[in-house]
Amino acid sequence: MRRRREVRYETRRHGVVLARPLVRALVLVGGGIALVVAGEPVAWPLGVAGAILAALGALAALRAVLAWDRTKVVVTENELLVVHGVVRRRTAAVELGPGSALEIEQSLLGRLLGYGTVLAGDLEIPYVPDPRRLRRVAA
């Protein structure tokens, strides 16, 4: 029988990871709305194309938020894990033990907004909020 892991720390990736996909989705929705307005009432094919474009933008936003929400960074007593996926869940793990290196990379923007990339063995986790706290918990 498998022993249950004691979770020491669990978090999602930083919300900044949503910035780019949500801006793209907003551009799609805005373009779609512009086409709908331009297609009223004479050029109805523009309106249909605009509605489709707006729906695609909304789906893109939903997909980005779901991916963000379903990605977890977890520290147990002896492992660092990344669990992600909506339909098919995947887990990447690295053992944490004496002598294992846990590195943190932070850009200037990352330091200002409170996120960084955590490197542990072959595992690289970008956009981790408060990576120094994660390192303290993992030690």
What does this structure look like?
Helix 1 runs antiparallel to helix 2 (44-69). This protein is elongated. It folds into 2 domains: 7-13 and 72-138; 17-67. It has helices spanning 19-39, 44-69, 108-113, 131-138; strands spanning 7-12, 72-76, 79-84, 90-95, 102-105, 115-120, 123-129. The strands form 2 sheets. A 4-stranded antiparallel beta sheet has the order 1-2-3-4, sandwiched between helices. It has a 3-stranded antiparallel beta sheet with strand order 5-6-7. The relative contact order is 0.18. The protein has 139 residues and is of the alpha+beta class. It has 4 helices and 7 strands. 44% of the residues lie in helices and 29% in strands. Strand 2 and strand 3 form a beta hairpin.
